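Retro notes, item 3 of 5
We never archived the inputs for the zinc ion complex last cycle. Fixing that now. Sequence and ligand:
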Amino acid sequence: MRRYLSTLLLLACTTLLSSALYAAQPIKTLLITGQDGSHYWKGASQGIEKILENSGLFEVDMLITPDFGEDINRFEPNFKGYNLVIINYGGATWKESVRKAFEKYVSDGGGVVVLHSSIIPMEDWPAYNEMTGLGAWNGRDERWGPFVYWKDGQYVYDYSPGYAGYHGLQHETIIDTRAPGHPIMQGLPPRWKHFKDEIYTKLRGPGRNMEILATIEENGRHEPIMWTVRYGKGRVFVDVLGHCGNDPEMIYSILCTGFQVTLLRGAEWAATGNVTQPAPKDFPLEDTYTLRPEFKAPFHAY
Ligand code: ZN
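Structure as it came back at the time:
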């Protein structure tokens, strides 16, 4: 009997241990990057990879597409086995079979994060426009959908004609939380300061199944800069912050603690539907930005 009990105990311990290990499994992440003539995408993607892996929550495979002038049809990622796909990409539209595989991955419940200039490419792929909700440049105008912005506590869908996409000089800015109850934003301050960045405005697109998480006031208009989109069973988190210039010294925008924390939370939410990360103590305040130059939380952050 004693032996039986100890065997049971051992079994129970093993089960507990394996379930604890299972819970601690990192989120399998595919980071797709490349082909962006306006950005030092390689440095930014290496930074994003560090932000994710240093959190201990993600295991990242970086996949670089064929370069400009090379054949994009050689790009054949396998989305199976990933809980999350992060897109930091600015080039040619993927071939039909890859598009179909990605649409299936997302509609079956896959998580997606779309960063900064990745709302610009692939304007000729309707499902990508649906997944990103809003886009800019590359010929986009009223045919792609309304301008979407925030006014007096409500969404504005503005169908007036006009070109999508504008940004001025880079600057520090205040971010307004618009969905404080959303798991990505829960516990974060209603307003916080973001470090110098390039702020995209005048975005337009289908804007369906979209929830605006945060806005920035530019030229008198509250422009969405972080939002989510539901596509089938899939969850998409779009963050148009995170500009990087064209050399390694110019990835300062992604050093911002606010960028890193919302990326980590958005990525976890997209992959799992939940956010387990508490609001850190080094998060920026309304009048003070903070930086994480090591791409990780400092020892006193939690
Ligand atoms: Zn940029």
